[in-house]
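Thread: Modeling a multi-component assembly for a lab meeting

Hi all, long-time lurker, first post. My supervisor asked me to bring a structural picture of a complex we are working on to next week's group meeting, and I have zero experience with this. I have the sequence lines for every component (491 residues in total). Could someone generate the structure of the whole assembly? Inputs are pasted exactly as I received them:
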Amino acid sequence: MKTTKKTSYKHFLIAYAVPIMFITLSIFTIPLSGFSPEYLIQEMIIRLARNSFLVLALLIPIIAGMGLNFGMVLGAMAGQIGLILITDWNIVGIPGMVLAMIISIPLSTFLGWIAGHILNRAKGREMVTSYILGFFVNGIYQFIVLYMMGKAIPIGNPALVLSRGYGIRNAINLEGIRQTLDNLILLKIGKVQIPVATFILISAFCLFIIWFRKTKLGQDMRAVGQDMEVAEAAGIPVNRTRIISMIISTVLAGFGQIIFLQNIGTLNTYNSHDQTGMYSIAALLIGGATVSHATIPNIFLGVVLFHLMFVTSPMAGKNLIGSAMLGEYFRLFISYGIIAISLVLYAWRRQKEKERARMDLRGNT
Amino acid sequence: MKRKRLIVQLLLILALVGVSVALFVIGKGHQLLIDNKRATIDGKRVEAYEWVNVYLDGATKPIELEEDDRQMGKVSGPWHNIRIEILENEKVVKTYERRFTVGLANSFILSIQKMVAEKDDWLTPR
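Re: Modeling a multi-component assembly
Sure thing. I ran the full set together rather than chain by chain. Output:
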């Protein structure tokens, strides 16, 4: 009995090593930063509203066993093209945001379809393939935005076009849609503001995922995620199911990027999408998710812990050793480091599980 | 079965295009350059007002125009409402209200003098 309890503690610690590590770190950085609880709560609410949709877009490929979708930047780029076009046409408010989403759908679908086909040819190496695919499509995106927009694709707004007459400027002011969703229903509790409409949208997405898991397609994805060969033998079209999961994830990433940028209010044409995948994946992993398993609570816990570190670490670094730069380095180190740690932990955990299964098979000798 | 699916898909695409067009019209932003300047109407010279407050689409905060002034207002969508208050010695002497529609142009020039005189060209695309 004692051994079982000890083992379960050990399993718990192994399973939640990353969130435990972050909670411990936060216990030190929060008081060191000197921020008031009110400020931190407000920041966390803003960042939850801003980032949750993007992180949620990662869930479906995980269900389908395709790991962490680093290719979500493809959807982010499609979303940004939608935003550039609505800014050029001067479509403002919620209609502008929805139109940007509609414009992004065919682009994201096409990119997701391509990504799905490529990942089907790279089974077992989906994460690194989608990561490199992101770089490849980034090149095409830059070609379209830097050379084709203003020439082949008409852009009438001179504020968007570079002085040479074609190509989009580095920074685009999204004042027409800035925080339109966030301010649609704004609830004030004391000094804390809650963007209710954004959270309603995020909740709807969570419900969609819960419902989707129960559908035939959702069940197929789970079966494919558990064992592709068994799923194939059961008559599930594995490749098609994987492609659909990539398409859904890419389309939702496009929506997520639009929600993210309406909150920020400025589009960095050539950089905004760069870190989208990395930060979303880091947040998901910090929430206790793994390459093969992620839940909705993992997302919210991850976003809060990751951004708590993001907000507090520069100030903690400044107050501790007089340099905010250290905190800045720490932020980058954390986001990249946490992905590495999580992947190592995942591989180690799988090896341990295999060993344990082997031991069980031999009668625990 | 396949044909039925194709028809449903086509209808969905058409619906999406329809929604996009509606969003384009509803969400189209327009700049209104509001003039409180001397104008010639039917050969007569009409002077600029001393002070005008302009309320667009039921706004609570007015756009304030001095004599010979031009200010910019922003509206979105095709249907709008404008209310102007003409002030003399800091007192409202006249109030006008009007509903109007705008096309798909980005920018319009709105002449208060022509609006008060109920001329057709009070709102012209820029």
